[in-house]
Amino acid sequence: MTRISSSQSAVTASWLVSGMDCASCAAKIRGAVERLPGVSDVKLSVMTETLTLALDEHQTKPTEVERKVSDLGYFVQRVEKPVREEDSNATSCGCGHAHEHKHGDHDHEEHGHDNHDHDTSLQNTSQKADSGHGLPGHLHEATPDGVSWYQTGKGRLVLGTGALLAAAWGLGLIAPAIAKWAFIAACLIGVAPVARRAFAALRAGMPFTIEMLMTIAAAGALVIGAAEEAALVVFLFAVGEVLEGVAANRARASIKALGDLVPKTAIVEEEGELHQVNASSLKIGQILLVRPGDRIPADGEISEGTSGIDESPVTGESVPKTKTLGEPVFAGSINREAVLRVRVTKTAEDNTIARIVRLVEEAQEARAPTERFIDRFSRFYMPAIVGLAILVALVPPLAMGGDWNTWIYRALALLLIGCPCALVISVPASIASALSTGAKNGLLMKGGVVIENLARVKTVAFDKTGTLTVGKPVVTNVRTFNATEAEVLALAAGVETGSSHPLAEAILALAASKGITPKIATDARAIVGRGVEAKVGGENVFVGSPRFAAEIGALSEAVSEAAEALEAEGKTVAAVFRGGRVIGLFALRDEPREDAKIAIAELKVLGVGSVMLTGDNARTGAAIAGSLGMDHKAELMPDQKVAAIKSLAAHDGVMMVGDGINDAPALAAASVGVAMGSGTDVALETADAAVLRSRVTDVPRMIRLSRAAMANIHQNIAIALGLKAVFLVTSVIGLTGLWIAILADTGATVIVTINALRLLTFKPEARS
Fold this sequence. Notes:
alpha+beta; Alpha-Beta Plaits; Calcium-transporting ATPase, cytoplasmic transduction domain A; Calcium-transporting ATPase, cytoplasmic domain N; seven-stranded mixed sheet; 25 helices; about 50% helix; elongated
């Protein structure tokens, strides 16, 4: 444990909470532990099923926290640090219903841990934490891989109560008196674990839970003699939980699949010998041997070899990239062609895949405004439903002489249909699915707030260099005067050999691409502000500014006109002198990315405007923006970019897209800041969102996904509230009974969950 700055007596403590896999679960646990003295800064991650809080152990012991959580029906296990996704994977999402926990990467036998690749703190605490776990009716159980739903406690409860129901119905044909007791037994067995959790929540100060409503309804039905319906209601409730668990697990599995992309082992080369080790133990600086077809086990840089690297697991980009000495590679990407040696630059917990998974997990905790509204609404809605049910049970018999059993029955049905499970899960289920789909497509969004803001974006502001353009100049034109292009290129490349200036690199790259060997140059020297001069074959050759040529009178009218025409296109011009005469001109420009024009067109189709904000000169800005069909503002200092963003944001939602470094102030000022970058620290951590493939077309894709997510949320809310409204009315007037009420409640929850999971298959590309 580590000390926190807020209090000298408080420490940060963490627990693994098995079965915490929906918003209601987190809310229940938060409500219980926040009431304890000395507890503050409570953080719950539904995705990783972890509870982290600041704890003053002089006021509350850790065991008291564990008792509170355990009483709610969850398996709680102390850890020294938050457990990541690879350490935990849970199934089901029951909105306060029973849950199960599934460890995808661990082999559990009777809830015990094996000794392979486990955190020491987990091993030390597993025995203690397991106390009482797996008791009858305790449904938050750890489930090994390969175990089917019917082998779990929740599954056995469904099968057991179902068998009792079937037996009771069979007995009803031959011995109705005995059948009644079979129905009562089925009801009591099914409702017992639910009632235990209901009273635990009541003791924690939360009386209005689905468990409490379910317990009251079942008990009330037994009291008024509706044992058959009570048993059926409990059975349908358990079936609904199993169905919800199967559906909700798909969203968690899609995130877990990201972590599984990194291989578990790596081949390390040390002193000429090869050793296979756990990838989780790799240290910075180690040399890895990566064979063709292998996944790269760590972030690193190539120290030997050239090969095509498939980065689709990390960035979503399906076309392999050829990479060679000194270039970065990411964990989880696939070596396609040749043997590579890779020097490790990031430890396992900090590699790109791990950080992507961590960011998506953390994004689950950033609740959307809509979700917060639903939570506040539910706090008033539940007591209102309970109050209405009491009125339905009392007023007609007392005021109008109605039959007590009839109106109590209707009140119980009202309680069941009033459960807000479907409403509570409607938003987080959609957000989780959207975040998962985005991560698979190289689109990282940090939570529901970002998704909502993205869906409202009406203008996208782009930085120019490195965002709309590739970030390095290339030669676009070569003009010659009394010399051949090959001759001009050979001379210029000879003079520029050894220079690291971007213009020099562009000229050398062009010569190499055309197979032209640079002339041998000697006595090279840089002339500050002018260019580079050297001797080639006994003659002075100069590569530099045309203005210098004009100053010394070496610029003819034809050369001057050609230079001005190229500069008018927003290009930088370099002249090549030989013997005091200009023999050639190079036009260079940082060219737009290939997909930039397509992206701007797609934004227009979405009804989203675009503007380029650049610190470059007005002529270059106008040329680039004009070629892309967008507005622009040039010669902006960083504070002027911020002012421009604020001006745009005064009217509508604004997205700022930049490289995440020098655009940080503008990214922060926008409604949504989006960083371009292939898995860099800055791209992943500084902005609200990131496009890992560095493709401009991913910007409209992100907006499409966010809009689809918000549409899905609105559909879910409409389904949840619509079904509630219909069945509330039919329950009060007696058209629907208890089993229809619970079926409608469970059905609504399953429907909104399945609807949310449709986002896992959403394709954010533009539809033709």
